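Problem statement: downstream parser choked on a complex file, so we are re-checking the raw output for the FE2/S2 (inorganic) cluster run. The parser issue turned out to be on our end (a line-ending mismatch), but while we're here, posting the original submission so the record is complete.
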Amino acid sequence: MATVEKATVSPVTIGGTRGGPDQPTVRKDRWWLQPVVTATVLTSFVVYATWAAFVNKDYYVGATEHRDLISPFYSPCLAGSCVPGSHPHIVLSQWMISPAILILIVPLGFRLTCYYYRRAYYRSFWLSPPNCAVADAHGSYSGETRFPLILQNVHRWFFYLGLILNVILTIDAVVSYNQPGIGIGVTVGSLVLTVNAVLLWCYSLSCHSCRHLCGGQVRSFAKHPIRYRLWKFVTPLNAHHMNFAWASLVFVALTDLYVRLVASGTITDFRLF
Ligand code: FES
């Protein structure tokens, strides 16, 4: 004869926490793992990126090494202090501190205001709430209706600026296939820069703002065939936005690290053919 387990009954308080006032959740799984991993990865990235931005050296491998590799943290290198060969035609001669500071404001603002990252860091750093069906660590909730969180609405503008950087990093990847003094060829560095650019494009094109730009506020797709095609293209990417967010974040740091190791002479950029 089959036995039927007696259902556990947890007290419900309207406006209170599931499981009652003394129990933040009735979840039995390791719900804390996700916020812990998120906080660890984000903190590690911020620490590394801050160090890399202020160290202001080993961000470019130039013609003396028969390479044209620049770290994504320093591209475009606009300051007067940029190492020779690393900057485009525009140079801000008065800017004397690290050129990375000029650049990183854009990807930082883009990621900080990203809808996915908002969910991730609201949960992992502010415990608001730490996970689904787990009590909020705060007594009240005001949403993003007041300063400073209302500034999250600038996300779309960072999206536009981020697209410009994506174009520049794509150009960096393309020119890295030309090795000065040798000719056209493929090195590990050029592949690293290429993968980095592809992941950043995937992250940008899967952005919720991008999807809304393509297909939002359209009453009839039949009357807007181009927007419909764009919307159809970005929607599958949008479904993987979280994956692209993490992959591009980790890889952009690894790309900086790779260029840094080559520029400092710690490793050699291997030429495949
Ligand atoms: S929603 Fe994540 S980048 Fe726009």
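For whoever reads this later: The first strand starts at residue 60 and ends at 61.
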